[in-house]
Amino acid sequence: PSPVNEADTILMRLIPYGNNQRLLIARDISEQKRLEHTRRDFVANASHELRTPLTVLRGYLEMMEEETADSEALAGWKAPIHEMGEQSRRMNRIIESLLKLARVEAEGLQQRQERVDVPAMITSLVEDIRRAAAGAEHAVSVDLEAGLSLYGRASELESVFSNLLSNAVRYTPAEGEIHVRWWSDDAGACFSVSDNGPGIDATHLPRLTERFYRVDPGRKASSGGTGLGLAIVKHCLEHHEGELAIDSTPGEGSTFTCRFPSQRCLNRRAA
Ligand code: ADP
User: What is the superkingdom listed in this entry's lineage (predicted)?
Assistant: First the structure.
């Protein structure tokens, strides 16, 4: 069945019905939309309310981490306090990602659109990664089509690129190779990040962009993941009529490719 109109609250589909006939089915989805808004607002409000008490806890825990770092009298407290500090930082990352996801879901379409210099944005993100401790352990190579810009929302595009880059860094063991590409073809523009990390089994691929879905939920909390990164990527891409393709072979590595339609491309190289 092909959708013929997807208005805000009425979903209509045209279904072939007999010889040269079509059946029109209309479904009222206003209740579904209302529930979706309620869920989104609840998550945003709850995350916002948790921010303040957590900031207080993190502040005191950081003070305690400093106090116990060099104190012989408090040596027994050093490990548990450090662990509490790590967990509070993790909780903070989750809350910030939840707020970001709620903002992207609620405000995405209202954000200003502009010409985004994608090669400059990717170059700066890659430099940040090379400077960061974990990124310095990898060989990051870059192949960018100069002058190829996109029309879109800068903060959302940055979320797409930075989440995919930081995943490649996080999941690829030290001394691994990461390759970043940005190019155009007849159909539009593509951004891809390839790594030679552990790869992902095909059974997980369909669920990877769900909120909190992680291939290995037991991974160390300090790895920096929240399970929300690819959900954010998916929403940001949808706002740009973009698509995410994941190509992965266990034991060999993964390639995450984002495709943007040609209407969004500026200064595309003539194919
Ligand atoms: P997380 O914060 O856990 O990284 P994401 O939504 O970004 O959450 O990713 C979901 C899951 O997909 C991750 O937990 C990980 O298991 C898997 N994944 C993402 N990127 C890669 C990658 N480059 N290599 C291997 N696994 C990956």
Answer: Bacteria
Supply the pTM of this predicted model: 0.84
Distance 188 CA to ligand 1 centre (A): 26
Q: CA 65, CA 60: separation in Å to the nearest integer?
A: 9
Distance 133 CA to ligand 1 centre (A): 19
3-class SS of residue 220? coil
Please say if the pLDDT value at position 265 is more than 60. Answer: yes
Q: How far is CA 140 from the centre of its chain?
A: 20
Give ipTM to 2 decimals: 0.98
Residue 169 Cβ inside 6 Å of ligand 1? The answer reads no
Q: In what order do the strands lie in the sheet with 114-116?
A: 114-116, 149-152, 265-266
The residue count of the chain comes to 271
Query: What is the distance between the alpha carbons of residues 240 and 150, in angstroms, rounded to a whole number?
Result: 10
